[in-house]
Design a protein that fits this description.
alpha+beta, eleven-stranded mixed sheet, two-stranded antiparallel sheet, 8 helices, 13 strands
Length: 463
């Protein structure tokens, strides 16, 4: 820019000097060449003015560019500041989560101590009750003596003995009343501790739900590993126990300790084969298993009622068979989930299943689990399929549009019998037709495998 300005300043001077030199000889000889030189000087001056204007334009452009760069730097500063504040908030959330975990751990320790103390109190109360029974027997003996003394005048020694025994009995009664009061206080404290633990678990579940990303669970669960199903092309071994076992748990109680396909015969039902899985020292009856999408779960009502698939691979046991088992008593429903990062979660419900006259109505009540609930509780859910949708919502058939029979209450809910979809599949509608877990407040979690199984509620290992 400086070179251009110097050129523009020097060029007119040089041309002017040359013009004067030529002008001195103009009087002696004026020719057409001299006139042409004056015309060239005018062109140079015009060119110089144009270059000067161009320089001013470039200068204005530079100033404008500097202003835009200053605006960009200001926005970058604001972004850095916002990112820093977000990092601080994330750190605070993590610290709060850690504090909640520590508080939960302390409360659980206190709960165990109170439980042990309560057991000791109960043991002492039982001893006192035994002592009270013995004292009552002595009192009855004394009553007999008193009856006799009403006829025969008692001696001074017997009178003292009666008084001391009465005082001892009153003392023991007061002691028992105090212990009962202590036990009641302990029960109240236990209830309070239990409520606090439940509140903390809900807070932890909420925090974990906020930190979930990429449709996967956050960390591995530390529950005991289940014995896996046999691989494909393996030959299933069918065991037949002596006698008519009503479910897998009864087979386990009879001494069977291996997972596999067994024959059971629920009360009032024909015998049929089921897959029994050993878990927690007992055996569970598996009613659904999905591992690789090799079986199409978009089946008819009759198929879901009677069951389909191979028990040593992917299968649905059948609503009729499941109902014949659960109508024998109270059962627990356990759902095990695994995402595409091989993270595992589970949830357990107390449940009831109606018969075919109710369209196999399902009612659930959550007991425990390591993932937020995604199924409606305390609600009668009727089973439906594409060819028999009992609750069509606004002329929209949920099983037909979301591919798979299930206990639907609203469309786009959790459907563990949906189409098996791998993560590479794209498109909102396709994902929602897939195999997923959908809490009421949260995103869709695409699943790699699911397993649903049942067990009587008297599972000792839960204590």
């Amino acid at each position: 820019m400086k070179i251009i300005l110097v050129f523009l300043f020097v060029a007119p001077l040089a041309l002017s000097a040359r013009a004067e030199k030529d002008h001195s000889s103009f009087d002696s000889a004026a020719s057409p060449e001299t006139k042409s030189r004056f015309a060239m000087l005018d062109d140079v001056r015009i060119l110089a003015n144009g270059l000067l204007q161009l320089g001013h334009g470039l200068k204005d452009f530079v100033h404008k560019t500097k202003g835009q760069m200053n605006d960009i730097f200001q926005k970058l500063y604001i972004f850095d500041r916002s990112f820093y504040e977000l990092s601080l908030q994330t750190s605070e959330i993590k610290e709060e989560e850690e504090q909640l975990r520590q508080t939960t751990a302390r409360l659980q320790i206190n709960n165990e101590e109170i439980k042990n103390l309560s057991q000791e109190m109960n043991s002492k109360i039982e001893d006192l009750i035994q002592n009270k029974i013995q004292l009552q027997e002595k009192v009855w003996g004394l009553e007999d003596k008193v009856t006799k003394l009403a006829i025969i005048q008692p001696s001074i020694q017997e009178t003292k003995e009666i008084s001391s025994l009465k005082a001892f009995v009153e003392q023991q009664d007061n002691h028992i009343k105090q212990l009962l009061k202590i036990v009641e206080d302990q029960h109240v404290q236990l209830d309070r501790q239990h409520n606090q633990i439940m509140e903390l678990e809900d807070k932890l579940n909420h925090i974990e739900l906020q930190e979930l990303a990429e449709n996967s669970f956050t960390e591995e669960q530390t529950e005991p590993e289940a014995i896996p199903f046999p691989v494909h092309n393996a030959t299933a071994v069918i065991y037949k126990s002596d006698g008519a076992a009503p479910d897998c748990t009864a087979l386990s109680n009879s001494g069977i300790r291996s997972s596999g396909v067994y024959t059971i015969k629920p009360n009032g039902s024909e015998a049929f084969n089921v897959y029994c899985e050993m878990k927690f020292g007992s055996s569970w009856t598996v009613i659904q298993n999905r591992v690789d999408g090799s079986l199409d779960f978009n089946q008819t009502w009759d198929a879901y009622a009677n069951g389909f698939g191979e028990l040593n691979e992917e299968f649905w046991l059948g609503l009729n068979k499941t109902y014949s088992i659960t109508k024998q008593g109270d059962y627990i429903l356990r759902i095990e989930l695994q995402d595409w990062k091989d993270n595992k979660r589970y949830i357990e419900y107390a449940f009831s299943l109606g018969g075919p006259e109710t369209d196999y109505t399902l009612q659930l009540s959550r007991i425990s689990g390591s993932i937020p609930n995604a199924l409606p509780e305390q609600t009668e859910l009727r089973f439906s399929t594409a060819d028999r949708d009992v609750d069509i919502i606004n002329d929209f058939n949920c099983p037909e549009n979301y591919l798979g029979g299930w206990w639907h209450s609203e469309c786009e809910e959790t459907n563990l019998n949906g189409k098996y979809v791998a993560p590479r599949s794209r498109g909102r509608l396709d994902r929602r037709k897939g195999l997923y877990w959908k809490p009421k407040k949260g995103r869709y979690y695409l699943l790699k495998s699911t397993k649903i199984m049942i067990h009587p509620t008297d599972l000792k290992s839960f204590d």
